[in-house]
């Protein structure tokens, strides 16, 4: 394969690793720079697997299959009072965990050119390349730079400084609980299911994911959930999202950092409002955490020799379960564009329009889904428009 020069990827998570693997296939010498000082293993919760999410495993990985890293479901199930099944229909989805998917991609990329503890802070480019500067004083140069650094993207702040996150009006309480820690009734209701519960101006989504050690065996799994709760923007949100160190979190309050009084209130409300199975998952979670639900949309994703992908470009609410799928799809389509053109700026310019259209469409759909559950109370379990999917319901 022809030598394409050097590519730098900022961000060593799902989007960055996928991009790194695919750019290496295109003939680039790829380095990934991750700002955290330790590997990201052990972070994050559940992931709903869509075709783009697992495309690398299906088409490229020699070490894993989809069945090695995920758990299947056969039904979508809505729980009502006293755990009675309020609605159910066939639904074949597969679920994994962020940690499990990270391990797959990291194992395939390798550690040699994966650099920890390097926080990118500045970028400039000329006709021949891009210069990237780090807080450590390090400077790197490449023919291509991809910012895959997530919802708090430095690349987006440098290249689209006027783009700001928009708060959706609600937060998500998230957590994972070992299957062995819950009752048999709860395990039976959530296993083999994409499970929901609806209440006034709120809903919770639950499903099984691999255990912390990656185990897929029944009894050794975890149950993942996200419970959406309306919180007014302003002092109420600011107070709730101030962590135990006194810092106000812009994106999430991490496990172990949520003020205990808010955890206690949330658990009490879950016991009062949710079906017993959902309430039990929350009660038995050691360290629930808060995700601030945001919308982020950029006007551009291509800037000469620099690209924004994944949440660095468009960050969508979780209702379509499409975040990792979009990140992977951005990387695959970028690799395809680069394969079609030897000139990096031309390839990025050709790649951008379709990605912008997809990002804007996704944001529009999840905003409508969120409005139906959180504000208009018009969420209908039988409506296929509310199903998961990057490109549309069930797609």
UniProtKB/TrEMBL annotation:
Domain 2,6-dihydroxypyridine 3-monooxygenase substrate binding positions: 167-295
InterPro entries: DHP_3-monooxygenase (IPR053212), DhpH_subs-bd (IPR054707), FAD/NAD-bd_sf (IPR036188)
Domain of life: Bacteria
Single annotated GO MF: monooxygenase activity
UniProt KW keywords: Monooxygenase, Oxidoreductase
Protein name: FAD-dependent monooxygenase
